[in-house]
Amino acid sequence: MRRLYISGLGFLLLFIVAGNVHAQSKYTLTGAVTDKANDSLLSGITVAITKDTTTRYTQTDKNGNFSFIALGAGHYIINISSIHYQEQTVRVLLDKDKNIRFRLESQFKLLNDVYVTARESKSMTSASVIDRAAMQLLQPSSFTDLLELLPGGRSRDPNLTAMNKMSLRETGSANDQRNTSALGTGFYVDGAPIITNANIQTTAGFTVSDPNASRNSVNKGVDMRSISTDQIEKVEIIRGIPSVEYGDITSGAVMITRKKGKMPYSARIKADGFSKLYSIGKGFANKRNDFFTNIDIDYLDAKANPTNSYSNYKRITTSLRTEKIWRKAFGNIEWMNSIDYGRNIDNERTDPDNSFALTDKYVSYFNSYDYATRLKLQLPKNSFFKTVELSGKVNYQQDKIDIKKWMQPSTATVLINTTEPGIHDVGFLIAGYTGHMIVDGKPLNVFVKANSVAGYFLGAVKNNLKIGTDFSYSKNLGKGQVYDLNFPMGVAAGSKVSASTRPRAFDTIPAMQQLAAYIENTATWRTGDHVLSLETGLRAFTLLNLSNRFKLANKVLFNPRVNARWQLPALQLNKKPLLITIGGGYGVLSKTPTLDMLYPPLDYTDIIQLNYYHNNPAFRTANVITYIVDKTNYAIGIAKNIKQELSADFSYGGNRLTITYFNEVLNSGFRTSSRYIALDYKRYNNTSINADTLTQKPAVDAFTYTPAREYFAYGTPSNGSKQVKRGFEYQFTSRRITGINTRFTLNGAWFKTRHADSQKSYSVISSNVVTDGKIRQYLGIYEDNVGTYYEQLNTNLTVDSYLPSLGINIAASFQNLWYTANQSLYKSGTPLQYVDIDGNVHEYTEADKTHPHLQALNIIYNNTAFKKYKVPVDLNINLKVSKSFSKNRFVVSMFANRIATYKPNYTNENGAYIIRSGLSTPYFGMEMNINF
């Protein structure tokens, strides 16, 4: 035991001595620093090594080497930094002499990847990509501001108290009868669509002056005011022919990818002349469990203009997003969830200093609740199926319009409050009252989708196969327009016909259901130095839950789409490769009618037959006949747009030029077409009784009358709109010039857009034409092209300098609209046929042009109406600057639009001298971003 004890003591003593010797050992750390791109050795690079609170510095020698000697054992942090290269930090355990090699990525390469404008995608079709850096310098208030970056786009002052719709590749001002382009632009947030088919939130026809008119988004697509940009990481706007995966669209698709993963706390505060915006966000990561959470919230308060505080718009959006990843032997499983809430408030009230009608107000509340989920299985590379994905989204909205208005009829106005057809004795509106109407809308949209992607080879051809199906359900659960029929918001004083609307409950409208399936194959073939890619796809869809009376019932419709790309062999110019890719595409894109188009409200025609107003209220009497017309157009079909495009892409020495020619023809766009119906009524003669001898309220039968019949109009949804888009888009992006870190981006477009009617039009003869004592006895049928050509050519030159050593980013844009033009389509004014009051159709002849009654149907136009009117150059210069502090923790930005303008006066086609000086004023704003 004693011997064992001495041995153990000796071993312990030896261990202590050895440990002490180890603790006192000194080591040497050596290394080299090279350029990652070409492995060249870098001299003059600062190397710092830190342990605890002690830091030592050195620099690499001419051979790129560095060394630290006499270092104690333990953990060290090594930091490599240079203004020309990206900073690199590593953690090292030093328990022996070590040699480490660092490969740095050029800062200029990083700078060359920073874009402050939209860049052209390298996908199969024309698309613009806008990333976070571009959005940060642009300083947007809503998604609308991003359109400035597209080819053909231009900066505009925000208009946040009106509906903001998107129209791709389009110029001119399409009226409310030609909104198919905006309605047919699809918005997808993290792969889930924003569906607007159940939006019926309108006050049209219910008020004398409609305060909701500029804000009305029914049948106009997505209101871009409601989309905050602070949650967005990247946007891809597909201007060309999208994959068949995306349907129920005619124009293009907007793909929004939101931030995800670990991120610092970020806050943004923006102010300009129209609005104030506040946002905050954070990304959390539990890397051990592969679980990520992102939270964002923003608040926007905007006014119609800085001097008007009585018309404003407020927006609150918040989002909670999670992502969980399971890493298994058979593949990775990703589960993403998001919960979103948005609230928009449009508010308009009367200035008490300008009006006695202190009750007048307009408030619109929009609450949106979203839940979206996506489960994705990522399979091994050697599997036939690469990914399998299931996703779904539920969106519920609470829309409410609340209008109050003081109503004061100037003359005796008949009160019509019947909802049944036939003849009715009615009363009169009181002299003054407060009208109050609520429009209650509750759209519910459900979307589910299954998608899979497979990969396989056929000989030397690599193929990616996409197969999927999706289903959407849209229903409005609201009560619709709610008001007291005895106190209407719309009165037609002195008119023979009253308003044609009555309240209807939205929840009585059937749900809209659409089922679709698609298949698409992308084949890539490499032969020599050539690379050929061909993407072919077919989408089939049908509307469910439709009455058999509809033309669309039980029909399966198809959208074929093809995109091709040919990458030519590289040409060596000055020892640099010139890469050329040419491509083209053909596609059919379709949009189904919305709920409002499939099930329009009933049309009420109330003809006032008798309006006998006596000084004694007890003797007053009135009589109307009410006709109710079902405006449903069972023949309505889809809006189908045929798109074609050709493109060329040139890349050389970091510079890139893309040119795209496109042609789009939409012959079946949606609009409201006028229809006429001949109705019978009686014209009672007020003077046929003696007012002085009345002792009681007179009966209607006491009055004599004359039978009458005339045409009355109503509107019905139809495929009567035509839109033809033609033009080319171009974008040149230079490499970022070293030394000054500056990039030049030149983009623009030539657009020519034709808006027209695609169906015969009907027009009633002027009420000034009296036929045998009767009016509106004839209809003219015309095939004239009612519409307008619009044209524009623009160029935007953006010069941006990115100076990371100073933390400054500067971008100056020169936005030149070379010209705009418009021309009304020629109309002969002569009808092909006319219809008499009995419904008989007659050919319109030369003799009819001199007929005392029918000649009024032949409309004489002045030739000046069809001249092409052209407006010359309009140049704006804009400036955007951002400055970062404390390693980008604080970024202060400002913008100034129209700091200089050039808009020369000109003489128009009619000889009038147009003065344009002083029409443009600068628009300023600034913001601060904080990351911590």
From TrEMBL:
Which InterPro entries does UniProt cross-reference here? Answer: CarboxyPept-like_regulatory, Plug_dom, Plug_dom_sf, TonB-dep_rcpt-like
Entry keyword Repeat: no
At the top level of its lineage, which domain of life is listed? Bacteria
Record-annotated TonB-dependent receptor plug domain positions: 122-254
Identify the keywords attached in UniProt to this record, alphabetized: Signal
Where does the signal sequence lie? 1-23
Write the protein's name: Carboxypeptidase-like regulatory domain-containing protein
Q: Which organism is it from?
A: Terrimonas rubra
